[in-house]
Amino acid sequence: LWTTANIIEDNIQKVREQVGSDEVILGLSGGVDSSVVAALLHKAIGDQLTCVFVDTGLLRYREGDQVMAMFAEHMGVKVIRVDAEARFLTALEGVTDPEKKRKVIGGMFIDIFDEESAKLTSAKWLAQGTIYPDVIESAGAKTGKAHLIKSHHNVGGLPENMKLGLVEPLRELFKDEVRVMGVELGLPPEMVYRHPFPGPGLGVRILGEVKKEYADLLRLADHIFIEELRKHDLYDKTSQAFAVFLPVKSVGVTGDGRRYDYVVALRAVETIDFMTARWAHLPYDFLDLVSRRVINEIKGISRVVYDISGKPPATIEWE
Ligand code: XMP
């Protein structure tokens, strides 16, 4: 009988047989797939697992701390957090082309992951959150997949010199099955059912050149939007929702004069497959509330717009 509990047990046995007493490295992104692999491997092999979590500085509001709180503190998984914000920002200086940004971010990510795993000299295996659709798609273009190596495959996948065997326990599973498994393994449903987040992160949600100032403003706006969606029971009714930072200044009149501050766009879509999407018809009162909160609470943003473009032709991300 194929219950989720059985699938988990079966996977645990297979992993134990595959790796024996060897050490395993996993790139943990905070996305669903790598999180489920972390939970599964932790259960299967405990301390033989070391996760490497690269904090790119392009993650969402407090995401890095949340990943650490969840895995390191709460579950007792060995996680190495690499604070690489400065390196990513430096590498992105002056880069404005979206595909170039993806390459820079993906390349830097691979370099850092490679450096960290080279330090773990005793590791013999590399675990990945490859799921069945990834296997079929293999070397396709960008997808909604959020796990590490795969999501940065824009630059060509695994580092050459990484002579590690692959552990891919989710290879035969669909996303829905991975989610059910995650919940069964004790991961919080809010994490397991989180909207997809692109590998290059906020790097492609800040139009043009990426700067820390922009990323910090964007994180705050995005957090308000998501928090309100959850509060109003709208989060699970949208497939993906986020804020986009527009590096243009627009005028705002305040008591003491005119202020020129940045603009944020809100994007929310409903979709089955992410190939086509309809903009979410969120209630006006809700949009009004989010807009007021963003403008009142975030110094530096003076205007909020809502994206009412369908895909095609407008892609879900702005870049
Ligand atoms: P678009 O913007 O192409 O997005 O309509 C479709 C889905 O793919 C995600 N996306 C990415 N995911 N790396 C990723 O891992 C990327 O470079 C990337 N670009 C877009 C997007 O968030 C949406 O879910």
UniProtKB/TrEMBL annotation:
Its EC number is 6.3.5.2. Keywords: ATP-binding, Glutamine amidotransferase, GMP biosynthesis, Ligase, Nucleotide-binding, Purine biosynthesis. The keyword ATP-binding applies. It catalyses: XMP + L-glutamine + ATP + H2O = GMP + L-glutamate + AMP + diphosphate + 2 H(+). Pathway: Purine metabolism; GMP biosynthesis; GMP from XMP (L-Gln route): step 1/1. Residues 2-194 form the GMPS ATP-PPase domain. GO terms for molecular function: ATP binding; GMP synthase activity. GO terms for cellular component: cytosol. Catalyzes the synthesis of GMP from XMP. Homodimer. This is GMP synthase [glutamine-hydrolyzing]. The lineage of its organism: Bacteria, Pseudomonadati, Pseudomonadota, Gammaproteobacteria, Thiotrichales. The gene is guaA. The chain holds residues 207 to 525 of 525 of the full protein.
